[in-house]
Amino acid sequence: MTDSFLLTDLYQLAMMQAYLEAGETDIAVFEFFVRKLPPGRNFLVAAGLDQVLDYLETLTVSEEDLSWLAGSGRFSPRLIDYLRGFRFTGEVAAMPEGTVFFPDEPILRLTAPLPEAQYVETRIVNLLQFETLIASKAARMRLAAGARTLVDFGLRRAHGSEAGLLAARAAYLAGFDASATVLAEKCFGVPAVGTMAHSFVQAHDSETAAFLSFARARPDNLTLLIDTYDTEEGARKVVRLAPNLRAEGIEIGAVRLDSGDLVALAVKVRQILDQGGLPAVRILASGGLDEHRIRALLTAGAPIDGFGIGTSLTTSADAPAFDCAYKLQEYAGLARRKRSAGKATWPGRKQVWRRFDADGRMAGDTISVAGDPQEGQPLLQPVMRNGRRLGPAPSLAESRDHAARQRAGLPEAMTALEDSRGYPVTIAPALRALAQEVDRRIDVLNARDA
Amino acid sequence: MTDSFLLTDLYQLAMMQAYLEAGETDIAVFEFFVRKLPPGRNFLVAAGLDQVLDYLETLTVSEEDLSWLAGSGRFSPRLIDYLRGFRFTGEVAAMPEGTVFFPDEPILRLTAPLPEAQYVETRIVNLLQFETLIASKAARMRLAAGARTLVDFGLRRAHGSEAGLLAARAAYLAGFDASATVLAEKCFGVPAVGTMAHSFVQAHDSETAAFLSFARARPDNLTLLIDTYDTEEGARKVVRLAPNLRAEGIEIGAVRLDSGDLVALAVKVRQILDQGGLPAVRILASGGLDEHRIRALLTAGAPIDGFGIGTSLTTSADAPAFDCAYKLQEYAGLARRKRSAGKATWPGRKQVWRRFDADGRMAGDTISVAGDPQEGQPLLQPVMRNGRRLGPAPSLAESRDHAARQRAGLPEAMTALEDSRGYPVTIAPALRALAQEVDRRIDVLNARDA
């Protein structure tokens, strides 16, 4: 259902028809970028490119959708004919997934005949903003958690099925260790892990009976949830159970705390476990956590070994959307620019160059027109031509490694969870000159138009 | 892909296996409810039931998923056997979609053998919370906008494809007039509407050329976007074009403003249009709007006839998730309760009764155990038995009418966009007594357990 050609804004089809009828089918260049950082953020992490390229490679109009469009009475026979056999024929350059980026920097540049380039806007933004949203949030959690385990628990609070699935992917890419979502393992190889729910404990006559039943059925990587009635009491039950389970060959791997004062409880539970001869049993925490809570818990010395994160990750709760856009930058060989109040854009085909200091840390970016080389590494790389990928996509593991290297290259100040306002992004003279040139042209045309 | 049986948390499968192996397959009752209102909210609007019932009716395990599960080495042959031919056999009672509700009130009660009732948690929460989130947000926008047109523009900023599609549905249900998402018309009959994008204007040599080209290709319900370069100048171009277009039989329906000071610009544009002989041309506004901005614009006297709302609607930006839960309330005939700090729940099978005043406005709710009738109307109604709907679902139009009547029945104070802390929800004595009884039982069992 959701891979239908109709998963788009009506105006894309309206404009497509208008372009076709006026013969406006020259090559257009669109770029996707974020206009500004959400409050408190220092950087963003690109993600979702693989889904965008899959989308572009497989884009077609089914017979059913074509009939629906024709039957709606809204579209011209010319449009319907054009859509029969429609496929994406353009090219794409993009930053690799996992790359750190900043406002105004295009992370994807798409070049195609105008009707195609226009039409794909809706889904490209839909995919790219969402995964980038989650990857950017997950990277902050990884910075806060250090080497501790991070698991995505977010599927139920995600905005629908695709959000849950892609959030698991984007979080893993950006440094999470695993996800509770089984389908993310099947589709993307994200390791699936799981514990138990309160309902499991409640369904049993006693907590001990629940622990025993679960341990015997699921002895591997055994994690027991101990806060259903009384967390410390739960930990003591774990200690009493452990020898019996060990006799059956079952080791308790971890306990999970999901409510209450996590610092005090984790300290107390660690004590109970250690005194009970279970120093190897890990403590996992969950329940309304985000990167700030993780940092606060660890700063307060909570002996927590891993975190399960749901809502704040899967909805990017502090910033559930970016101020982002996919904008026309060039058409029929001429650079273009939107000048709406507060939403003006830099025109033309652009590239982003990144400089590094002697330690290999990011030192500054320059945005210029694509043909104007600057100091540093160009970040946008060609990935698609004639509607086909130029090579196999990097594996998710490779993208995850790239994201880890990117985090390691962040200037120290930017690893803070608070706004460090530090990173220099420069607009090159050639790009400023192009903007002025476009403005002059628009002014002349508008004066003539008036 | 997203209707896979694997779209679940790993622990659901783990618990399912544990239940099966311990023979814990008695009847369980789970309820879905919201724990508390997001800040500034006065009420919530139930939505998503139709998708939940579709899910339950069609739930199966594909051969592919079954092979994957078996091949993962994580699950017992008993679980794999059980899943072969698995379907949902339980019953559901729920508040009709569009019903206004409050914290602690179950909007869905599911009764089924424990392994089934447990498994479906993830997707039920995923669907029900999301559509309820959007419907609750959309209802506020309808209260702010009065009779003015409201259109969902949110697909691109939605969290993936399903979120975009279901947001269009939930917003329409809760009082929106239309959506830009074409697929929502095909799937749900939500009227699709559309205007034009800045890129369309930019792709043309002049704004006038763009307007002409679009008008000729798409003469019906013609809306021109006039803020690409200069909004007032755009309005003047519309006035100059109108007579020529009229000569071709084309009427301009509306103009859209998408940036700048919308109060000042709407006043100015209205003036230009009126003085230009176009009093019937409507003014639509978009660009970062939410219910507070809508109310502020209208309070300031902006002559705006309709609003296009994207991000704030489709992500429920001020509250991108609810503190909600699907909790075990009864198992094997015994009421159950979670007592975790700050997350304790009311036990047992519950019903919500609503009283109305002489004007038909909502006067107060009582939550009690299902068999303890209270004054007023019971809100949860049986909708599914033996895994099959009890009757055809209400049409989306019927649910939309129901939602409109519910809004009309809100106490005056609750139509404010700010927190009115007004609505009385009472816990009946029988439910308090049941909670005490469950606590006593848990204490006895835990004492024996210790």
TrEMBL record, chains A, B:
Keywords: Glycosyltransferase, Ligase, Phosphoprotein, Pyridine nucleotide biosynthesis, Transferase
GO MF annotations in UniProt: glycosyltransferase activity; nicotinate phosphoribosyltransferase activity
Pfam families, per database record: NAPRTase, NAPRTase_C, NAPRTase_N
Classification via InterPro entries: Aldolase_TIM (IPR013785), N/Namide_PRibTrfase (IPR041525), NAPRTase_C (IPR041619), NAPRTase_N (IPR040727), Nic_PRibTrfase-Fam (IPR007229), Nic_PRibTrfase_pncB (IPR006405), Nicotinate_pribotase-like_C (IPR036068)
Domain Nicotinate phosphoribosyltransferase C-terminal: 374-434
PTM (free text): Transiently phosphorylated on a His residue during the reaction cycle. Phosphorylation strongly increases the affinity for substrates and increases the rate of nicotinate D-ribonucleotide production. Dephosphorylation regenerates the low-affinity form of the enzyme, leading to product release.
Pathway: Cofactor biosynthesis; NAD(+) biosynthesis; nicotinate D-ribonucleotide from nicotinate: step 1/1
Reaction equations catalysed: 5-phospho-alpha-D-ribose 1-diphosphate + nicotinate + ATP + H2O = nicotinate beta-D-ribonucleotide + ADP + phosphate + diphosphate
Protein's UniProt keywords contain Nucleus: no
EC number: 6.3.4.21
Domain Nicotinate/nicotinamide phosphoribosyltransferase: 150-329
Region of interest (Disordered), ranges: 388-409
Record domain Nicotinate phosphoribosyltransferase N-terminal: where: 6-128
PANTHER family for this protein: NICOTINATE PHOSPHORIBOSYLTRANSFERASE
Function: Catalyzes the first step in the biosynthesis of NAD from nicotinic acid, the ATP-dependent synthesis of beta-nicotinate D-ribonucleotide from nicotinate and 5-phospho-D-ribose 1-phosphate.
Protein family (similarity comment): Belongs to the NAPRTase family.
NCBIfam families: NAPRTase_put, PRK09243.1-3, PRK12484.1
Protein name (Swiss-Prot/TrEMBL): Nicotinate phosphoribosyltransferase
